[in-house]
Amino acid sequence: MLDIRFICDNKIEIERAMKNRGVEVPIAQLVSLNEARREKLKEVEDLKHRRNRSSGEIAVLKREKKDAAGLIKEMQEVSGSIKEIDTEVREIEGKIRELLLMVPNIPEDSVPVGKDAGKNKIVREELSDKREFDFEPREHADVGETLDILDIQAAVKLSESRFVMLMGKGALLERALTCFMLEQQIKNGYLEVIPPFMVNSKAMTGTGQLPKFEKELYRCRDDDLYLIPTAEVPLTNMHSGEILSGDKLPLKYVAGTPCFRREAGSYGKDTKGLIRNHQFNKVEIVRFTKPEDSSEQLEELLADAESILKLLKIPYRVVLLCTGDLGFGSARTYDLEMWMPGEKKWREVSSCSNFKDFQARRLNIRYRDRGKPVSFVHTLNGSGLAVGRTFAAVLENYQNGDGTVEVPEALRPYMNGLERIEK
Q1: Is 351 tagged catalytic?
Q2: Per the confidence metrics, is the pTM higher than 0.85?
Q3: Residue 30 sits in the same domain as residue 171
Q4: What does the pLDDT look like over 204-215, one tens digit per residue?
Q5: Residue among 294, 330, 350, 351 flagged as catalytic
Q6: What string of H, E and C letters represents the secondary structure of the chain?
Q7: Range of 357's domain?
Q8: Are residues 270 and 407 in the same domain?
Q9: 106 lies in a domain?
């Protein structure tokens, strides 16, 4: 969430940033409401000053045995006015917060300006492990179904489309990928956490899922609980309302969890396989850091996510998102995109983002350095990685002409030494 004072003091800059994002936000209304709030607060302050002064006059009249009834009545009316204005102020502040929750973060100046993904910038490509096939590679869903490790129809029977069931060595591969990713991120310095898979609306609001993306979430009908769309939500909320010690920063957490997304608005897209499901597993990495360190911390977090792809020897590229493709709360985001030879396209497997103090303001997460004022932390997160999508990339990049799939060397210790998946 942006600071209302910053918005009012930098109205032109904010409007330009929102235009670059391609969104319309009620900046003028926010400025107007804040001015009305300031006027009401001044009015209340004047009335309180008047009441305090009159209280002294009433005390003098009473000591002198003089009639103070008129002044007392007047002060009762002033007190009533103060209560009314206090109520109006709370209502205005409620409207301001409601509008602020719909205002996205300001992109960094270095973020490319563009209305959609077509303006994203390819930072670098890591293609040393890209294979040249002597046969026509197949898409991962076909490979998995042929090997009987992926059963889409059984999942549809149990649930609906956009669910999958992993069988036998497919279940083993999913588990191996999750364990491998977690252990690698622990080596990268993250503390593993197993958080709740359901959180309340306050937690969802704190990280920016609510109210903007309510249609994307699964909500429990009888409770104020939502299934998490990513472990970013519980991990970032861990320190809500806290003042952290500056000498303990950065804090680094990792969690491997199931994630749940309704995929509203994606009708007809990627309906088969593991790319865009309602339920999927993901390993998430989160950092809390000082503002002056967050740019460097983002590069480190990106390298941590990349380390998984490097060890698995999956070709990938790093993409800097433009303003129009940037996530709601992010100021800067890198996507990691894997090469999928069966699909003959790049697929995003991780978004590594610097939210700066956007989430911290919503969650009131601050830090204190000795001798300095308390300040908001910066939060960062990324996938390290999306497990199902990495599963798909392994099937496509490691498939053989006879329908079998080689197990990447880095995964073999997690698969009981298995070197090849065959029917």
Answers
A1: yes
A2: yes
A3: no
A4: 999 999 999 999
A5: 351
A6: CCCHHHHHHCHHHHHHHHHHHCCCCCHHHHHHHHHHHHHHHHHHHHHHHHHHHHHHHHHHHHHCCCCCHHHHHHHHHHHHHHHHHHHHHHHHHHHHHHHHCCCCCCCCCCCCCCCCHHHCEEEEEECCCCCCCCCCCCCHHHHHHHCCCEEHHHHHHHCCCCCCEECCHHHHHHHHHHHHHHHHHHHCCCEECCCCCEECHHHHHHHCCCCCCHHHCCECCCCCCEECCCCHHHHHHCCCCCEEEHHHCCEEEEEEEEEECCCCCCCCCCCCCCCCCCEEEEEEEEEEECHHHHHHHHHHHHHHHHHHHHHHCCCEEEEECCHHHCCCCCCEEEEEEEEECCCCEEEEEEEEEEEECHHHHHHCCEEECCCCCCEECEEEEEEEEEHHHHHHHHHHHCECCCCCEECCHHHHHHHCCCCEECC
A7: 117-421
A8: yes
A9: no
